[in-house]
Amino acid sequence: MSFSKNHTQFREKNEVLGKTLYLVATPIGNLADISERALKVLSEVDFVAAEDTRNTGLLLSRFGISKSMVSYFEHNKRERGEIIVSRIEAGESCALVTDAGTPAISDPGEDIVRLCAERGVNVVSVPGPCAAICALTLSALSTGRFAFEGFISTNKSERRERLTELAIDKRTLIIYEAPHKLKTTLDDLYKYFGDRKITLCRELTKLNEEAFRTTIASAIEFYKENDPRGEYVLVIEGAPEKSESDYPEDVTEHVNMFIDSGLDRMSAMKTAAKQRGVSKSDIYKSYVSEN
Ligand code: SAM
Questions:
Q1: How does pLDDT run across 10-38, given as a tens digit for each residue?
Q2: CB of 49 shorter than 6 A to ligand 1
Q3: Would the CB of 134 count as within 6 Å of ligand 1?
Q4: Best of 231, 232, 234, 235 to mutate for ligand 1, by most ligand atoms within 8 A of CB?
Q5: How far is the CA of 194 from the centre of ligand 1 (A)?
Q6: Is the CB of 132 under 6 A from ligand 1?
Q7: Chain-centre distance of CA 149, in angstroms?
Q8: Rg of the chain over all Cα atoms, to the nearest angstrom
């Protein structure tokens, strides 16, 4: 590999070190998105920890790299994380690769980074593709302030609480969604957010890449006639700027508005407090004195 030829000034930083965990971002669809640095690290580390060793094996063989691999995924991350970190402490270097994109973003990578931090183990990030950022840049929505939420929980009460909280967030929102859950999620977004601009991104960086810029209501209509295909990133316009008069002046009415939308009393008070920019105890006092 001719990596160091044109990068002599970076040689020191690019030397693959022992006793280090490398977080190596890999393509989310288009293999040409692999970076020169990612290939160098993957070629030179002692071993690769992969979310799916079969997928990563194919990626490595595509680039002529043969490397010892261990699996590291959601259901073995606890014991396997310990083993990987112990090997690194003993002197080895490891590249962590998840199924696609940047390790530690909505995948088990986050846990092993925390474990390394606790044990004083060196971690180096080799940045590259990330579906969330790719979608945000294509969305044509505001990119100045955004909130990444990953996959919204399917647990009923957690989902309700999260969506209620997000409904008043003015930042552009990015979420991940699987095709079989897309319609339910669009319905819930409409229920909690009302109609807003949304960009549905799928098959990013692939042949059939699509950024469907529409509104939540129109997307619901569209998917009544069309089956969702591929993995999605949804980018949703933030909540509109609200003035004081956009919610009930009366605290009880305000709290009841959220209770009516399905929140329990404490969550409703928390959300009303957030929207009014006051503390929860202020809301609690007014609510209790009015009831
Ligand atoms: N760590 C990854 C990253 O950096 O984007 C994300 C991992 S998460 C387990 C997988 C989710 O990312 C998918 O369900 C989908 O929402 C999104 N995703 C990954 N690749 C994608 C692509 N090519 N097009 C659209 N969404 C994609």
A1: 566 788 999 999 999 999 999 999 999 99
A2: no
A3: no
A4: 231
A5: 26
A6: yes
A7: 6
A8: 23
203 lines ligand 1 (CB under 6 A): yes
DSSP string, 260-289: HTT--HHHHHHHHHHHHTS-HHHHHHHHHH
Q: How far apart are the C-alpha atoms of 254 and 201, rounded to whole Å? A: 35
Task: Give yes or no for a contact between 155 and 129, defined as CB atoms under 8 angstroms apart.
Answer: no
* pTM for the predicted model, two decimal places: 0.85
Check: CB of residue 104 under 8 Å from CB of residue 113: yes
Helices (H) and strands (E) in the chain, counts: 12, 10
What number does the ligand 1 atom closest to the CA of 129 have? 4
Strands 122-126 and 93-97: unpaired
Give, as one character, the DSSP assignment of residue 127.
Answer: -
Of the candidates 118, 124, 129, the residue with the CA atom closest to the CA atom of residue 28? 129
> In whole numbers, what is the pLDDT of the chain averaged over residues?
92
Q: Per residue in 126-169, pLDDT tens?
A: 999 999 999 999 999 999 999 999 999 999 999 999 999 999 99
d(CA 57, CA 167): 42
pLDDT digits (tens, 9 = 90+) for 45-89: 999 999 999 999 999 999 999 999 999 999 999 999 999 999 999
Q: Which domains are present in the chain? A: 16-129 (3.40.1010.10), 132-236 (3.30.950.10), 244-290 (no CATH)
The CB-side HSE value for 50 (13 A sphere, CA atoms) comes to: 19
